[in-house]
Specification:
single chain; 343 residues; alpha/beta; Rossmann fold; Dihydrodipicolinate Reductase, domain 2; 2 domains; 6-stranded parallel beta sheet; 11 helices
Length: 343
């Protein structure tokens, strides 16, 4: 039995992680922390856990992770980078769901996040936790930086095209929509029902923190610099990301559908839909699945890829469990076999 701890389990990503871990046949949750809810039972704060957990939140200052094989950080950025070094020294493996270790270039991280990094020496050691591109490295990793939700949907969508070297890497475009849970559980004016409901709005158009992460990952797929235009949108729904991706073909290919199907033929968490079908966020709600579709409208030189994930599952907690499974030698899909919810 793998013993784990969860730092920061009161947010949407944290409680989604707890939900998945409680259903995992090979995992025992030993420690769950929260400064604000210390002493409170999880099932009191989240009644959906009634009958499934008798755990209580512990103050992080009092938490003992010595018996843990893996510790997850489901915290805002700048928390993990202050606490992870001590855990690594103890021989405890870490999966960080925040942005603290996603960028190998420390100066780039500091420019986008506006502060000094507290553990720059670990940035180059962290393994990026996208299993479809870093599976073997994740198995041996001491520290995994779990990808962001937008970067997961975007990178998986572009992966077959970049691996095949058939698109212009200087003119990639991603237009993406996310549900309001992507903004976190804290009260924010823009996430209120009366503000976000019945409305579609773009944000971060001049620059979004996920952009350098996406360009880093996409560049790694093609071994050359990549330029991406990324425009995120807030969609009036609780969960899900839908990404519409555009790329200019530089090499004629007669079977894009076959290219995508072959690329992901053995991937347990990526589903390429039959030609002519389109993914939708409702089809992946609650599941650790990325649904993809590819098209070449009017037979012109623009290829369009559609990508849909649940931002809290394949875009965060589910992918973190996927990484943990690889790290400890469990079947990659253990605890993640759940079918998407309908409606």
């Amino acid at each position: 039995m793998i013993r784990v701890g969860v730092v920061g389990a009161t947010g949407y990503t944290g409680i989604e992680l707890v939900r998945l871990l409680l259903q995992h046949p090979g995992v025992s949750i030993d420690v769950v922390t929260s400064r604000g809810e210390a002493g409170r039972r999880l099932d009191n704060l989240f009644p959906s856990l009634l009958g499934f957990s008798d755990l209580c939140f512990i103050d992080p200052a009092d938490a003992d992770y010595a018996a843990c094989d893996v510790v997850f950080f489901a915290t805002p950025h700048n928390v993990a980078m202050r606490e992870v070094p001590a855990l690594i020294k103890q021989g405890i493996r870490v999966v960080d769901l925040s942005a603290d270790f996603r960028l190998a270039d420390v100066a780039l991280w500091e420019r986008w996040y506006g502060e000094s990094h507290a553990a720059p020496e670990l940035c180059a050691q962290a393994v990026y936790g996208l299993p479809e591109t870093h599976r073997e490295a994740i198995k041996a990793a001491r520290l995994v930086a779990c990808p962001g939700c937008y970067p997961t949907a975007v990178q998986l969508g572009f992966l077959p095209l970049l691996k095949a070297g058939i698109v212009d890497t200087r003119s990639l475009v991603a237009s993406c929509g996310s549900g309001t849970s992507g903004a976190g559980r804290q009260a924010k004016l823009g996430s209120l029902l009366t503000e976000a409901g019945e409305s579609l709005s773009a944000y971060g158009v001049s620059g979004h923190r996920h952009l350098p992460e996406m360009e880093q990952g996409l560049s790694g797929m093609t071994q050359q610099p990549v330029s991406l235009t990324f425009v995120p949108h807030l969609v009036p729904m609780s969960r899900g990301i839908h990404a519409t991706l555009f790329a200019q073909l530089t090499d004629g290919i007669s079977d894009l559908q076959g290219l995508f199907e072959q690329c992901f033929a053995t991937e347990p968490s990526v589903m390429v839909l039959p030609a002519g079908e389109h993914p939708a966020t409702r089809n992946v709600r609650g599941a650790n699945i990325c649904q993809l579709a590819v098209a070449q409208p009017q037979g012109r030189d623009t290829v369009v890829v559609l990508s849909a994930i649940d931002n809290l599952v394949k875009g965060a907690a589910g992918q973190a469990v996927q990484a943990m499974n690889l790290m400890v030698g469990q079947p990659e899909s253990a605890g993640l076999e759940g079918i998407a919810l309908t409606p």
